[in-house]
Amino acid sequence: MTQIIVVTSGKGGVGKTTSSAAIATGLALKGHKTVVVDFDIGLRNLDLIMGCERRVVYDFVNVINGEANLNQALIKDKRCPNLFVLPASQTRDKDALTKEGVGKVLDDLAKDFEFIICDSPAGIETGAMMALYFADVAIVTTNPEVSSVRDSDRILGMLQSKSKRAEEGLEPVKEYLLLTRYSPARVTTGEMLSVEDVEEILAIPLIGVIPESQAVLKASNSGVPVIMDQESDAGKAYSDSVDRLLGEELPLRFVTEQKKGFLKRIFGS
Amino acid sequence: MQTPSLELKGSSFTLSVLHINQLDLEKVTIELDGKLAIAPQFFLGAPLVVNLSRIKAADYNLAALKDLLISRQLVIVGITEAIDEIATQAKALGLANIKSGKQSNAQPQLPKTSKIVKQNVRSGQQIYAKNADLVIFGTVGNGAEVIADGSIHIYGNLRGKAMAGASGDKHAIIIARSLEAELVSIAGQYWLAENIQHNSTTKSGCVRLEGESLTIEALPL
């Protein structure tokens, strides 16, 4: 049974695309056949993060319009045989997405793939609605700050009222919270909301906490999903999140401030 | 879509009511002419309802009264508060038997019910319990709105807006397990977050209207 997972947030710049790429790669590395679909029509980014921007020939909108078939548009990841990318169109806008078109493409993908990851654009307009409409699971990416939390709350409301599952009265979309760009030191000083604060406001189960990390920017710029950098704390945190998505129970890591050792305090880090 | 050739809509009009206080049509004629002479233009073609509450005679000649009014350029549209026999005459003469607003049966008040929401109300969502109390088993987030014609009970945190007694019920209350609202309002009287903080020391609370101002009291939890 194929699972459609939407990575969404409402707010922009919180790490939806980074998380989509990392989670899709993580699932594929675990042996699950996975495709990650970029719904951000007109602002195509996923291909950059996945490092396949030079191999984009046909895109999602071409497939919807029948100008190309799925196999022509899907890009096979070079590092991981179970992973495919369906890129967005850079020259169109979000109105190119229709419920029928998107539904048909997702149905076709469901024949081949175990997991379909939908990378949602920011906002609550057509693009974001299309990305979440068919979802079985939603990963709500949130930064530990008030505006991001409020936008996530709004998106959760949309999932409960505007998704296909809600409209058809099926079992509701499973919602998980993914807290990104978390900085324990700034939580201690009171500059940032804590995990507990965000969990309390949004009241949905937590699937992972990704620490603020230099590795994320480095990974994005070099087109390698950060989960492949297993040296980095962000990479490890994404691996944990993927395991939790697959049903494992793991303790949270990187949520408390690491005390600097004596030498580090003297020489800095 | 094709426009329907007719539509039925309710509307209210102000009509002059002519009270007939005695049976003698001649006296009525004289007094009526006197009145009309004062402002002839005002009454010209004016639609009238005739109140016959004082006329208790079953053999009253309504046709003669109608002719009199028509001869003075008045348009009689109906009668009101007449005894049954005269009402029957009116029907025969093609006049309506009109009930005034006070007389007409008020719409039977629907019994108040409760609307129950068993989930969190998220930012941007709006819930309205029409003619009902609203009970929420969950939290009302920032930017969410819950509105009820009756009272609102929230068994979670209230962080958004809550408006009870939306159609004017001053006895409506708002109860929340944790009162962190952006706005609470009862029958149009409202408080913003800062007023709530000023006026409340408790976490949970009951907001109600005392006279013209809101008060918050602690819940015995």
Automatic annotation (TrEMBL), chain A:
Question: Ranges for the CobQ/CobB/MinD/ParA nucleotide binding domain?
Answer: 5-226
Kindly give the Gene3D superfamilies that the UniProt entry links to this protein: P-loop containing nucleotide triphosphate hydrolases
Record's InterPro entries? CobQ/CobB/MinD/ParA_Nub-bd_dom, MinD, MinD_FleN, P-loop_NTPase, ParA/MinD_ATPase
Matching entries from Pfam families are given as: CbiA (PF01656)
Q: Keywords on this record? A: ATP-binding, Cell cycle, Cell division, Nucleotide-binding, Septation
- Quaternary structure (record): Interacts with MinC and FtsZ.
* Role according to the record: ATPase required for the correct placement of the division site. Cell division inhibitors MinC and MinD act in concert to form an inhibitor capable of blocking formation of the polar Z ring septums. Rapidly oscillates between the poles of the cell to destabilize FtsZ filaments that have formed before they mature into polar Z rings.
Return the similarity comment: Belongs to the ParA family. MinD subfamily.
Descriptive protein name: Septum site-determining protein MinD
Automatic annotation (TrEMBL), chain B:
Q: Which residues form the signal peptide?
A: none
Keyword entries, A-Z: Cell cycle, Cell division, Septation
Q: What is the top-level taxon of the source organism?
A: Bacteria
* The Septum formation inhibitor MinC N-terminal domain, residue ranges: 6-75
What range(s) does the Septum formation inhibitor MinC C-terminal domain occupy?
116-217
Q: Which is one Pfam family of this protein?
A: MinC_N
Self-association and partners: Interacts with MinD and FtsZ.
UniProt family annotation: Belongs to the MinC family.
What's the stated role of this polypeptide? Cell division inhibitor that blocks the formation of polar Z ring septums. Rapidly oscillates between the poles of the cell to destabilize FtsZ filaments that have formed before they mature into polar Z rings. Prevents FtsZ polymerization.
Listed name of the protein:
Probable septum site-determining protein MinC
Taxonomic source organism: Shewanella nanhaiensis
Q: Which gene encodes it?
A: minC
